[in-house]
Every structure is written in C-alpha cells, then in structure tokens.
Amino acid sequence: MRRSDWQQVWDALREAGVEVPDWDISEEEERITRESEARITTTIDIKSVLDRKRAALFIHASQIADSWFSKLPQEIGERVFGKETFILKENNSRASVPESDLFAGLR
After folding, report:
1. 66: alpha, beta or left, given left = phi > 0 and alpha = psi -120 to 50?
2. Which of 24, 34, 49, 76 sits CB 3.0–4.6 Å from 12 for a disulfide?
C-alpha cells in the first residue's frame, strides 16, 4: 500500500479518537517508501468484494478482534482498502502499465 493511504488511515483514526502512534520516518525510510511505491504497476478496484473481505477478516478474532481496523470509518476503509496494489515482476503479455486489470494483455 502507498504511504499516503496509510496516512489517511492514521488521520481518520485520530479524528475518531483512537490513539495511534506518531508516524515519523527518517529521510532514508521516506526514500525507500518512494522507491517502493514507484514500482507499483497495477491497482485493482476491489470495492465490489470489500464487504466480504472485511467480514472474512473479522470472523478470525486472532486477526482483527477489537483492533484499529474495526474502528476505521467505512468511507476511509473503502477509499484505502478498496484497492489492491501489485508490482509486475515480468511483463510477458506486453500489457501497458500502469494497469487496472490483472488480465490485461491476456485476453
């Protein structure tokens, strides 16, 4: 996930009164984050299955029970977790990037 997405999560949780740690990162960590994000080639909209994904996570108490995730406002959850990002390792399909379809170039 992009750092800007995590920042939205932290900001929303703070606004909701949830205590979250400050997110101060060093210049080196910021550089690494930018380089990692620059490698993202694919963003898939998963909003249509987000409710099922969320329900599956909540059914496993060891994963989510009373965590910050359960306190996240729905609109932020949809905006941030309503997409999955991937880094294309090898493009044998010659699909153009960035892409929004995991099967681009294969159909």
Report:
1. left
2. 76
